[in-house]
Amino acid sequence: MIRAKIVGILTKDDVSLFELKGLNLEANLFMLVLNEASKFALNDEIGLGFKSSDVVLAKNRLDTSSLENELKCVIEAINFGEVLSVVSLKCDQISFEAIISNHALKALNLSKNDSVFAYIKSTSIHISTQK
């Protein structure tokens, strides 16, 4: 789980953009939420989650993209399936997984110990716990 502190909140028409400073990883993240801003304040510490299927992998940094959350990771393991593969990633103090098609795995030519960039849409991150 990613632990983060809220460092910015921008709200308009019940849509909020939270800027988050990672506490157990060296990254700032962004999260878009509906009707949540009133429950939180600046400097609140929260736990963040996301689905493994919402992680996009790239061998090279995406310079122009709407994906705001970028994490530089190392592949710890790959569990090959019939159609999908589970890629286990390590980024600073956190570990998580990405589920990608075998077709994409082959096209990216990914293997254990490779460095990759993991991207997560701001709409895919959710609050899993609050301290």
TrEMBL record:
PROSITE patterns named in the record: MOP
Q: Which UniProt keywords apply?
A: Molybdenum
* UniProt keyword Nucleus present: no
A biological process (GO) of this protein is: molybdate ion transport
In what residue span(s) does the Mop domain sit? 64-129
SUPFAM superfamilies the record matches? MOP-like
Protein origin, superkingdom? Bacteria
Query: Is Flavoprotein among this UniProt entry's keywords?
Result: no
* Entry protein name: Putative molybdopterin binding protein
